[in-house]
Amino acid sequence: MSYFKNISYALRTVRKGLTLTIRYFFSARFKRNKRPVTAANYFEAENGTFTVQYPREEILVPDHGRYKLHNEIDDCIVCDKCAKICPVDCIEIEPIRAVEEYGKTSDGTPLRIHAAKFDIDMAKCCFCGLCTVVCPTECLTMTDEFDYSTSNILDHNFSFSKMTEREINEKKLELEEFQKEKEAIKNTSGAEKQAKPVMKKPAGKPVFKPRPIPKRK
Amino acid sequence: MLSLAFYLLFLLVFVVFAVYAERKTAAFIQNRLGPMEVGPRGMLQTVADLLKMIQKEDIKADAVDKLPFLIAPIIVFVAVFAGFSVLPLNAEVAGSNVSGGLFLMLAIISLDVLGILMAGWASNNKYSLFGSMRSVAQIVSYEIPIGLSVLCVVIITGTLDLQKTSLLQSGRGLIDWNIIQHPVLIIPFLIFFISGLAESNRTPFDLPESESELIGGYHTEYSGFRWGIFMLSEYGMMLLLSIVGAILFFGGWNSPLVRIGSWDLYTMTSGTVWGTFWLLSKALLLVFIQMWVRWTLPRLRVDQLMSLSWKYLTPLSILMLFICGIWKLWLIS
Amino acid sequence: MSEFVQFFFFLLTLIGVGVIVSTKNVVHAAYALALVLVSLAGIYVLLNAELLAIVQILLYAGGVVILLVFGVMMTRRGSEDVLVSESKNSILALALSLAIFSLLVYVFSEATFESFESTITSDQVREIGVSFLTNHIVAFELIAFVLLVALVGASYLAKMSSND
């Protein structure tokens, strides 16, 4: 009797499969809604096609996603903390000390060091986000830009310094002269120790202080 | 001659858009979009693929059996395309005037096995050889149920001429179709459809090709245009069997619309152009069902394939032949 | 036109036969046999025997040759790449085939063929079917019986080998 059972089983399963696929076929009229990850119904099944035609449309990216790093160089005090904490050493900074305070960041911290070079090699980056945590002026942030693929890996090294070659040389010369001057002053009159108030202040103390995060229980 | 010329042109256009439709059907069933880039909604994707394929090198490996290797795809295509010669197109344009038209078609399309066998053997490749051996075993086995299910229709209509079969179903629209006039033909149609899938090497019976096990089976060694001819033949076979199915069971070029009161929809939608339209749209609907089946069912195992043919379809079709004989003798005459 | 087509089919048949005799590759010989059978079917069509031509294609080209090639493929021994047929006793074979050929020539030259206009052109299938079930019913039933015996024998053999 298994002969007729086989036939009816085959018919039933084929019918079930065909109804299932035709339902999917017609549901292709619809397109799945784009929902942010934070949406409550994010994991809910939905009918319709879910292909994202990438360059023309993009998946919604969470605001706090960790993608490409960005440094707002005008706000950067070149404290070198990010370069020190980076586990993969992808940030490379070449500082030039300014002879005097040459400006203030948007949160009021005085700027005393020029960034001759502020390079972040995104090819090395491990997207841990530690550098953004330690940044005292919050100028180093992770943006929602995730597509920056290039055909040359060297193009993944992003340079944020705005200084031109000429400016760098100028600042270097300035610093050299200033140091020479200082040496000269030191040598000629060792008593005039109070004549350099600029150097006495602790360099680049941030106005913003990170608050301790209350521990959750 | 006119219908054959038409079918040749139609086949070429059909293949281009059938491949597109196949990919779109697959995509929609799998919640995808399918080709979208070339042309509006990806319509020209197959054209681009064809252009690429034609430009490819016609590779002949050193160890192949040269002449059979080169002519095998042509034999397959000629065998399939010769089957189109007996098909009518509409009420005015009939196919080749052979007394046993349907019989001739079945005989000629059985020759494509020879081409497949030749391709597999000449390729000198174990996958190709396995593919072609499976193909032969499959096509030879499924020719029996397909022949018997066609014979059921022949018993009831009493003719082997496809044009006469179509004429017998004309007059009142839908209610004159064989499958509705003679409901016993429903099971023969199913047998015809299933065996047709096997004859054209379509999933779930694509064992001769099975990409996952045999890397394409008998056409593993082929590239470029010759491979394209195999592809063309496969889609040609689909179209041929769909047209034959439409003629035998679904009224051929007759309009499905019936007369409603004084509103004679049937006459309004009959004529040369309308006939061609109805025949081809019925056939294309069947082609769609073939695609739908392909993206639903997984491939059968070799022993399952054989037992389906020999233990289920063949006895059932012999039984249906008997029932159709009774139907013809006592119930409708 | 008709003569030209007929000549074409004769030529194809002769080429096929020539290949069968001359080639040593068994598979090639089988392909050539298929060519011969199909071109014979073409000649049958020109002789107004459509049904015979169809049966020729279906049974011989589509059935017998395929099974022949299939059998050759299945029985390929070891790593032999090409199946080569041997030609022994060529003198004896030549003598034998000459004898058969001359016999055939003699028979055909002596025989008197009734020239008859083909009366069944419209529906050969019907005519042949009717004559099968009326005048030639015994032969028809005998063929059916032979086929049945063959089927039973085949399934018996298949069952026997699976039990081993």
Secondary structure: elements and pairs:
The complex is a heterotrimer of chains A (217), B (333) and C (164).
Chain A: H1 2-27, E1 69-71, H2 81-85, E2 91-97, E3 103-104, E4 110-111, E5 113-121, H3 130-134, E6 140-142, E7 157-159, H4 165-188, H5 197-200
Antiparallel strand pairs in A: 1-6, 2-5, 3-4, 5-7
Chain B: H1 2-29, H2 45-55, H3 66-82, H4 101-109, H5 112-122, H6 126-157, H7 162-168, H8 178-181, H9 186-199, H10 211-214, H11 224-249, E1 259-260, E2 263-264, H12 265-268, H13 272-294, H14 302-331
Antiparallel strand pairs in B: 1-2
Chain C: H1 2-22, H2 26-46, H3 50-74, H4 90-110, H5 124-133, H6 137-163
Helix pairs in contact in C: 1-2, 2-3
Describe this structure in words.
The complex is a heterotrimer of chains A (217), B (333) and C (164). Chain A folds into two domains: 9-60, no CATH class; 69-179, Alpha-Beta Plaits (2-Layer Sandwich). Chain A contains five helices and seven strands, in the order αβαββββαββαα. The longest helix of chain A is centred in the N-terminal third of the chain and has 26 residues, at 2-27. Chain A is of the alpha+beta class and 217 residues long. In chain A, strands 2-5-7 form a three-stranded antiparallel beta sheet. Chain B has 333 residues and is mainly alpha-helical. Chain B has one domain. Chain B has helices spanning 2-29, 45-55, 66-82, 101-109, 112-122, 126-157, 162-168, 178-181, 186-199, 211-214, 224-249, 265-268, 272-294, 302-331; strands at 259-260, 263-264. Chain B has a two-stranded antiparallel ribbon with strand order 1-2. The mean pLDDT of chain B is 85. Chain C is an all-alpha fold. Chain C folds into two domains: 1-76, Four Helix Bundle (Hemerythrin (Met), subunit A); 121-164. Helix content of chain C is 76%, strand content 0%. Chain C is globular, with a radius of gyration of 20 Å. Chain B binds chain C through residues 65, 68, 98-100, 103-104, 106-108, 110-111, 113-114, 117-118, 121, 124, 129, 132-133, 136-137, 140, 160, and chain C through 27-28, 31, 34, 38, 50-51, 54-55, 57-58, 61-63, 65-67, 69-70, 73-74, 81, 122-125.
The Cα radius of gyration of chain B reads: 20 Å
* Total strand segments of chain B: 2
Instruction: Count helical runs of chain B.
Output: 14
Return the string of H and E elements of chain A: HEHEEEEHEEHH
